[in-house]
Amino acid sequence: MNISAENMDFKELNEMIKAAEGDVFISDCYGQRYIGSGLKDKVITIEGTPGNALGAYLDGAIIKVKGNVQDAVGDTMNEGKIIVYGNAGDALGYAMRGGCIYVKGDAGYRTGIHMKQYKDKKPVIVVGGKAGSFLGEYLAGGLIVVLGIGADDLPVGEFTGTGMHGGCIFIRTDKELTGLPAQVVVGIATKEDKEEMIPYLTEYCEIFGFDAEKLAADSFYVLRPNAKNPYKQLYTAN
Amino acid sequence: MREGQIRIPSGCAISGIIDKTGKRMSGEAIIKSISVMHDRSNGLGGGFAAYGIYPEYKDFYALHIFYENTGAKKSCEEFLERHFDIINLSKIPTRKVKGITDEPLIWRYFVTPFATKLADSQLDEREYMAKCVFRVNTRIQGAYVFSCGKNMGVFKAVGFPEDVGRFYRLEEYEGYCFTAHGRYPTNTPGWWGGAHPFALLDYSVVHNGEISSYDANRRAIEMYGYKCTLLTDTEVITYIIDYLHRKIGLKMEEIASVIAAPFWQTISRMEPEKQKYHEYLRNAFSAQLITGPFSIIVGFDGGIMALNDRLKLRSMVVGEKGDKVYIANEEAAIRIVEPDLDRVWAPSGGEPVIVLLNGGVNSGS
């Protein structure tokens, strides 16, 4: 089904998407919120700039965006895939608990804020370019990969991993990574470390046409929370 | 109920368009832009600041005034006649729009201070103007000056911004720069005078956010003779900018380093020269640091500045196409006006984007 979304209210658009039989193609999208929220099946392809909370609570559907996305994409997403051919705004994958988000370009502030994992549910975000400050803030589970493709500087901003207490962050760079909080343990990723991200890196590269093997061979930092009760005595003398 | 009587603990929308060459455009584009972000506001306020719209009166201050009744108008006009040479006055043209109700009387005056009065006051012209505006707004019951700059004007009301634009026939004005605001008041009830932009002289501010330093900022700025009558964040931000720019003489870049100052931790990692600069500004103007989430667009004579709080707790996107620069909370609000941009980016927290007429764009990235 084809929908031209110009001047369409978000409620009307979302109702049409839900009612559609089979895959949906949306053109002229200008800022409609919550597209595809909670959907289990269907493939939704979007041309234009979808609004905030794209794919919120997504539960298995696939969303592809031929352009940039705004804030809080994949908010509390449970399952499925969001593929962005441009850049993403702030709070990408906010409180995500399953599924994958692949962004070809850059992502904004607070990517992966408060993602979490449980049993087989493990959310994954791969950002091709750079990510803004507060990457993985309060990270509780899941996997974030920043590839820094085309970045001359460090591909992450300040305060990476602030409040991190679970999950894992990979950052591809040969620059020095400093200013991390004491609760985060950082090291150069070994071959064994990298195995965790290889399947996602491979899928990312298949989608956007990069060489997975070449990228995987480069130097990555791996960030994990300090397992020795990292927040002991942070707030109280316990 | 009006601003100043109650504080209810804003989601909002802001947008701005400027032509760097000073070429004028109609207000149509800014209405279109802000209307895309309709859901960010709740109908309790919308408004626009337009620069370069009164070239035929560019040497005179344009006063836009709300009156609650004809009595207030009479008292205010008596005051204006005592202090200013009024060279033109008229009702501001409006049209009936569904969704805009209870409008006050809305008048416009082009004025210049009486030379003798100005000389007697021993104030410079702009300070004289500001003092007169404060006088009207605090002493004349039912009269409220909501715009008082040269060759610019603010147009605002209670309603959704796109309705406010149509109400004021903004598409009939031509300016080189427009800013817009859709309001979702959280601390105050929403009143015509309390809608954004908030303006003093040619400075105007549209603001999205909820500053947590409000009272510290208010107490500090009131020591310099400003009176915060509205209890709105935007009012205090405007006064801080007026104080730092007009009175202290800081540049816009420096003002950004004051109000969205980097953390001490970040400063400690800077090059020595830069470190000294930021340490000085933080120490000298600590009371003007604004904390909590905000994105603002400051309009002034000859340019605009867009700025996020240092933690970037509100969104902001900048787009460029030819001589035009677009700023909005959401990229969609830019794309609706200009789908094919030369460049689009999101400035970092505390990193100002300053666009000057014929001066290009100054930004960190």
Automatic annotation (TrEMBL), chain A:
Residues of the Glutamate synthase alpha subunit C-terminal domain: 12-176
Pfam families per UniProt: GXGXG (PF01493)
Domain of life: Bacteria
Molecular-function GO terms, alphabetical: oxidoreductase activity
Name of the protein in question: Glutamate synthase alpha subunit C-terminal domain-containing protein
From TrEMBL, chain B:
InterPro entries listed in its UniProt record: GATase_2_dom, Glu_synth_lsu_1, Ntn_hydrolases_N
Domain Glutamine amidotransferase type-2: 12-358
Transmembrane stretches, start-end: none
SUPFAM superfamilies to which the protein is assigned, alphabetical: N-terminal nucleophile aminohydrolases (Ntn hydrolases)
Active site as annotated: 12
Protein name: Glutamine amidotransferase type-2 domain-containing protein
